[in-house]
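Pair request: fold both.
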Amino acid sequence: MTETDSATKAVEEADVQIVELHKQPVELYKILKFEGLVGSGGEAKAVIADGHVTVNDKIETQKRKKIVAGDTIQFSGMTIRMQLAANAISDAEKQVSKPASEKNTAKKSDKKKSAKKSVTKNKTTVKG
């Protein structure tokens, strides 16, 4: 590597903003919004849909694209590199860390809710 190449690389790395993730994955539009690159979530979704955002050097149009540590986002001349914070927990780790009793309770309550909804539907549709 020549001195010019290493100088160029140093300048490129200086222009990269490091963002620490405390939870992963994070949806792409939320990163643009929380980092202040756009004024709102709606604006973030619009610029993504219009193809103005790249993730890992590819144009990304999925507004809810899951971003994890190591991903690089480019938008409006700015480059953001995602880095995992020391105390971060991923969604997969959260599922593993839950006690089995909590997992089962959540499933039972979801079933009760859906059962109540279907009963309510039947009552409202059957009119004499």
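--- second member of the pair ---
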Amino acid sequence: MIAAAEHRLRALQLRKKGHTYREIGLQLDMSEQRAHQHVIEGLRRLNTERSELAEEVPQLELERLDTMPLALATKVTKSDCTAIQTALKIMARCARLLGRDAPDGLNLLLRDEAERMASHLSLHIEKVLQGAQRILEGVR
């Protein structure tokens, strides 16, 4: 099994350098068809790994973004406009990563969060939503 993995790796390296399957087969002491199979299998495995990694990237981004509002919480509760705008941008980014953007650009998750924030800070919800909409339009 290790030998097969090493052959796949070596076959990919040779193919990347421009060698033909015949040349790869000669160098690795195998048939041209077997060299082709090793290259194809190596590429298939690389694509699978790449797909798995690509699926992890949004999750890592969400985890990173989830920690940011905590740093802003004190300023948000003191009605710091810059902190509120930053928090809204973070929420918008999370919504986009989760595919929750509504067609009008202001998704339900963001609206719920904005309503909660407005209620907590005794702000007028429509003004908060208008500000959030302007921020979202500027983020895009």
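Observation on the second member. The two ends are 49 Å apart (CA to CA).
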